[in-house]
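A further point concerns the way the authors explain their paired sequence and structure data. The central task, working out the structure tokens from the amino acid sequence alone, is never made concrete. I therefore recommend that a typical entry be quoted early in the introduction. An entry of this sort, consisting of the sequence and the corresponding backbone structure tokens, reads as follows:
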Amino acid sequence: MRSATSIFGIIFFLNILFFLPNKVLSSDNSFVPQADLTSQMIYRGEARGTSPHILPALGFNSGNANLTFKGIQPINFYPDSDAFQELVTQFSYTLETSTNVDITPKIQNRFDTRMPLLEFDEASTGHLLQSKLEISGQGDIAPDITASYSFWGRNAIEPTMYIEAGTNFAIGESELRPFVSGQQSEEGGFVDLDYDGDFVINQVGMEASRDISLSSSTSIPMNILLAVNPKTEQVFTALSVSFN
């Protein structure tokens, strides 16, 4: 069963890739270094430790294709064994359609950097493979939806489907995004908080972002997250800033 679902995950991504519309984005090539700082790492309805995290990233863009390497590293002022320590390698291919909707399939490897890099036994590897599809609208009110399928690795996890939907709009100088997410897997799935194999709503929340001006020519994007996991009844808040 596990091998069948792993094959399905690969086929899922390939079908996305070959079903792409024929209109692509700009053909410019560029390197994009950036870094984010967050007061707490919140991921799929779970707080990963209590430490702040830094997320340095290096992206390479070539036309409609993007390859990004992003680290997730805690800033430990005290021992925090639950904090994230990952290297995320992601390839994506973004298109726009005639209906002002962007479609972005992605393939992603999330590697736990506390594990051996060259260990590829599924039962003990620190690698985790995911296929993702993001669909985002444009305009003053822009809905978006992301479907993610974790299908191989990370100590032989059960295949896990994750779906998140939100809507982006502006009020004054702030961008707001209410969102809701859910996931389903057999017991032992990715970020499985004793969900017992059920489909669960694991996040209901709001993101708010705006640029903070430091001078007439310099500003820093700031984001505030407020979310609740209805299943575990936990509430999360986080402050993030970006440098790019």
Notes: Residues 63 and 141 are 26 Å apart (CA to CA). Confidence is low (pLDDT under 50) at residues 16-26.
